Structure formats: C-alpha cells, structure tokens
Amino acid sequence: MDERSIVMVKLTFYGGIREIGGNKVLLEDGKRRLFLDFGYPYSKYRNFYEEYLKPRAGAGLLDLLVMKLLPPLEGVYRDDLETPDLWQQFHQVEHYRRLEGVDGILLSHAHLDHSGHISFLKEDIPVYSTATTAFIAKAIQDSGKVDFDQQVCYFSPTVQKCPAEGWKQIAYLAGNSEKHQRHFRIADVKPEMLTTDVTKFWLQGFWRKTARQKELISHPLEEHVRCSFNLRCFPVDHSIPGACAWGIETSSGWVIYSGDLRLHGKRGKLTEAFIEEAAQLHPKTLILEGTNVDKATNVAEQEVYENAFKAINDAAGLVIADFSARDVDRLLTFLQIARDTKRKLAILPKDAYLLKTMRLLEPQIPDIAQENALVIYQETTASRSPAWWLRNIYQEYSSKIILAKDVVSNQGDFILCFSFFDLNELPSIRPRTDSLYVYSSSEPHSEEQEMDFWRLHHWLERFEIRGFGLPVEKNGKWEIPEDQKGLHASGHACAPDLLKVASEIRPELLIPVHCEKPDFYVDNLSGSGIEVKLPSEGKTIEI
Ligand SMILES: [Zn+2]
What we know:
A hairpin with an 8-residue loop joins strand 1 and strand 2. The chain is α/β, with parallel strands linked by helices. The relative contact order is 0.13. It contains 17 helices and 29 strands. The structure holds zinc ion.
C-alpha cells in the first residue's frame, strides 16, 4: 500500500450549503486541519433571530449550538464561552465531534458571511489572510457596533461568575475589559513591508489598539510561512478589496478554494491570473462559489458609471447615492461622477476611516486630504465624546467636515453617500423636491429587506424625492424596473463566467458552495470530465 491510500483527505461542510454565505469548510489531512472561512450564516440566523431577538451573549456558545448556527465541534471554540458541562449536552447530537487542534483558518475576504464566526474560535488558531483583508476586518470592527458573534479581529474574553445563592441560572458570562487580538498571518506581504516607518507607526496606532485606543493584548502581524500546509494565496476580484482564493497542497493533491470572485470587475485580471495559476497545479479538487448561477450576464462597473452619471448630471438638487462603501470600486465610481458633475462626494466618517486604512496598503486609493471632490459628512447628533478613531478623523480632516446646514443651503453641490440606515438625517437636511435618490446595490433577498424598501419608499414620498434604480413591488415581487437597471455591478461572476472558471482550472472534482442552486454545476458540467459532488450539512467528502 502506498502512503496515499493510507492518508485520506477529508472535506467536511458545515456552512455555505444551498445558502449564500456562512461558509465553513473543514479540511483534514491526517492530523493536519484547516478551516476554509468561518462565516456568519445570515440566512440561518434570519430563521430565528432579528434585531430585537438575538442569541444571548451571556449564554456563551449554548444558543448557537442549540439553534444549529455553529457546528458541534468540541475543542475548537474559546474556553471562556463554554459553561461547565456544556458539551455533555451535545455528545449525542448529529455531527458532534471532538477535534484535537486546528492549524489555521484560511480567510478569503472581510465580508462577515465568510469571517464573522471566527469570533468563536480559539484565539491562538491563526487566521491566514491578505494584509488588506486583515486591515479592513479591523477597521470594520473598530467603527461598527459589533455583537459578540462578529468580533473577528479582537474580543473580550468572558469571565464566568458563579451564580449568587438563590439564583437558578446555569451560567452568567460577564464581559472582561481586556481585549485580545487574534493571530493574523499575512499571505501576500513580506515582513519587511509591515515594518516600514509608515506601517510601523500604524501598527502601533492601528493594529495594536482598539477603536477607543485601549491597548489590545496584541499579536503582531506575521508572515504566513509557518503553516503546516504548503499554501498558495491568489488575489481575486470581488466587491471588497483584498479578496483571495486559496490553494492547499494535500496528500491527495491540490485543493483550490475560490472564496467569492468575479471576472467582470475593475480588477478582473487578478481572477484571470488565478485561473491560470490554479490550472497549472492540476488540482484534485475545486471548491467553487455559485452565488449568481442564475444570471446569464454581468453589469460592468463602467456601465454603472455611465448610467449613474447620466441620471446625476441631469439632476439639479441634492443627490443621495445608496451603495456599500466597503465596495471601494463603487465608491471610486461615484467619486469620478462627483468630479465629472462638479459636485462633492460626501462620505460618512466610518467610510473615511476605511479609505484611510486601505490607503496604507494600496497607495492608489485617494488621499482624503488631497482630494478636492471628497468631503466627510458629520452626523447631526454625533456624540460629544466620540471614539478615538472618530476623533482622529474629525481632527485630521477638519477642513473636510461638512454638516447638515452646509448641505441645506447648497443642495445641488453634493452627492451624499447614505444608505437606508442614514435616512434619519433627512429631517435636518430637508431635501428639496428636485432631489434624486440613486440606488446602486443588489435587490432585496429577504422579507426584512423588502420591508426596508417599503419604508424607504415612504421616506422618499415624505420628502418628494425621486428614486432611481430602486426595487419596486409588483405582484408580491420586488424588482428594479427594466429601464432603471444597470446601476450595480455584482461582486460575483455570472453563470458563463463560473463555468469558465471551472473548465479552465479543470479539477478532477468540483464541489459547489455559497450557492442556492448547486445542481447548476451538475447539469452544466456533465460529460466535461469534471466530476461534481454536492456537499451536505455536516457530511464529509473524501478526496
Ligand atoms: Zn463576499
């Protein structure tokens, strides 16, 4: 018997199965183990939870394990979240396992549906990512309201308090003021680059401290070479910078994990290069996303520019542009439109913080201080004692700050980057009736989001603002009217592009994830020489 037949490489799928996001794939090769992403499963959460009904942080892992939002894997989660006797309740449940040691998490990008549940993993399991992904993940956590189930970069370990006499609770986990940082190992940057003067300064101020400038129990960024596997990190194009695909050399051959990707974006060349290099490895297995298997074509970012430019150029009053600012390509598209229509693009402080952070690693990102067409909108009811990161933004860019009153008197001068959740600024701005709301994001994919659009339409009616590119309800379905499409370039490849990725990489075996209709690959790759296996929850595929 040769060695290969003894060591069987196993892939077990705990998330991302017939759902968009929540990817959690366990790769095992003998005693070596990796997770490929460890994402927050939005659609599973929505089955049980909403804004005012959430898993109880004070119950540690209990709620998530009982509600099957986390796989029952003893030994991989933070000890401080485990109440005494926790695991005894789960020894008999389906897919329960005790795992001795995980060598790392390969994180594909900083979207929470790929990264969020890293929050629960033991703090010394290293996270392998690109430098941009590590920095964006931290900027998102610093500047957002982050629950205990989305603390990707740092967390407060909980302290178990014995119930006082007479209490009947089984556990009470209280937050600790100490913050612990996760161990990030950077795959695409050499250590020298992380210790140049500018990054050294930032590593002290940015990487090592929380948003409130508390010192973290910090772990410096490291290079990735210390992994027990031979790894390849391939930068790819997606709707957030820093995205990558991974290659893992196993006893059965190379396993390629795509993360999320597209070919039609501004950096589509990265994805092309990935396809070519991955093909040269003659991989055994390709784990490929399939978000847009039902889309036959893509909208390119250039079309978004052209369509949005046309609408905004004709507008006389205030323009509100609704898009994800983490999609930096889209932000740059609207910045160009602002320049070309002689307006100023007003971004929120958290977007400014993200841009500033990204510029550390990507010098082509515009410098807010130098960019004439860029200003920062300070929310009207901003706190008197803002967090450290926010105070820094206000100080560093003081000449760039605008307030509602500046917009009131010069409505035609601005494009405001607002989303639905920023609409409560409008009573201070009082948009005139010649205002325009440009929607440049995806159509709703849950009832809650449909409800938000229903409210958004009421806001627009209240202020008599014209909407453009907005989904409207027709026979119970929310869709963007045909003549107002083309304002959003998806972060994901369309069906023909996904088939190109598969057929050019040519793995022996393809396993779809992050996909609601994985049968697409079975139907379209039959007879191609590529075998397709569909994963199921908690089940192992041996390769
Ligand atoms: Zn994504």
